[in-house]
Amino acid sequence: MDDAAILKRRGYIMGINLGEGSYAKVKSAYSERLKFNVAVKIIDRKKAPTDFLEKFLPREIEILTMLNHRSIVKTYEIFETSDGKVYIIMELGVQGDLLEFIKTRGALHEDDARKKFHQLSSAIKYCHDLDIVHRDLKCENLLLDKDYNIKLSDFGFAKRCLRDDNGRLILSKTFCGSAAYAAPEVLQGIPYQPKVYDIWSLGVILYIMVCGSMPYDDSNIKKMLRIQKEHRINFPRFKNLTSECKDLIYRILQPDVNRRLHIDEILSHGWVQPKARLLFSAAIDKDGETSATPILEASGVQESPWTPEPGPDKKSATKLEPQEAQPEMNPESQPKEEILQEASRLLDIRSAVPMEGRPSRDTEEGGALKPADTHTS
């Protein structure tokens, strides 16, 4: 029985092809029960590699069945046929993904970026509170519904965090995600907190939202890592970003993992909470000063160094476990070749699975904003 017949028996009228890989494809379909269009990911176990079947697919299915948040793509049904095909019925991102949206329309106004970033941050807090980490946060995985609200998608590399006998999160050692969105500790092969890694990726996404370009050039990983570790961030002058927005990005893209903001601190930041914005300057003056000043590098234009407004470096009530086992960053250390080689080993797994839950687009890539290359391990 073909896919259309199988879906018809479950109450879905199959539509157009949204994407296809070597062992998976994504179709649109109309749900007779829900009365609207959905996306259907179809995975053929007979064609899928062992790594995917034994590790990635079981994790994804387990996590998808747990999630229920307004800013996360909904999973309506998962079923499998006797011939080894897995069908995942999920919400359709009718307006495409955030990357294509920004490539087409340019950087978002801060008010629009604030709304979308708050939606995304709320979704990440929900996941982190469940000890679930996404590990592949990027603009391509942020779908837009009919009202252009954010819907976090693609949990193919997500996992449940493990804890030791004392209840502390166990550090991760594997490279997972896209280099352009990867934190410096991950690129260096340093044992890392996966939740803290997700936070760095949030900072890259926010920068892209308000600047319309990537904060770092991943064509030269060695140079990118050096710039990251020096805490250098370029805020283009012509964007006229508010100091609050720059402050938030600067604090998220913090190479020192012990000083990088937690998700609760992001959600309570003055830029994210409009009602708190008028009190932002007064509150930060009262609570203390920052010790670092970022160095800005404008593309072709020299810009005066931007000094982050003084603010608390205090941790929120909901804390991540201390990084006791994590070594200090060595300024001279470089990305470990074995890490990047291991990342490339499973690259075919990601490329073989089509992007889910979004309509296909023929927009050409252009400029500095481009889809990120994904690496896994």
From TrEMBL:
Residues 296-377 are annotated as: Disordered. The keyword Transport does not apply. The keyword Magnesium applies. Residues 12-272 form the Protein kinase domain. PROSITE patterns: PROTEIN_KINASE_ATP, PROTEIN_KINASE_DOM, PROTEIN_KINASE_ST. It is an enzyme of class 2 (transferase). Residues 311-322 have a biased composition (Basic and acidic residues). ATP binds at residue 41. Its cofactor is Mg(2+). Keywords: ATP-binding, Developmental protein, Differentiation, Kinase, Magnesium, Metal-binding, Nucleotide-binding, Phosphoprotein, Serine/threonine-protein kinase, Spermatogenesis, Transferase, Ubl conjugation. Its EC number is 2.7.11.1. SMART domains: S_TKc. It catalyses: L-threonyl-[protein] + ATP = O-phospho-L-threonyl-[protein] + ADP + H(+); L-seryl-[protein] + ATP = O-phospho-L-seryl-[protein] + ADP + H(+). Belongs to the protein kinase superfamily. CAMK Ser/Thr protein kinase family. This is non-specific serine/threonine protein kinase. It comes from Pipistrellus nathusii.
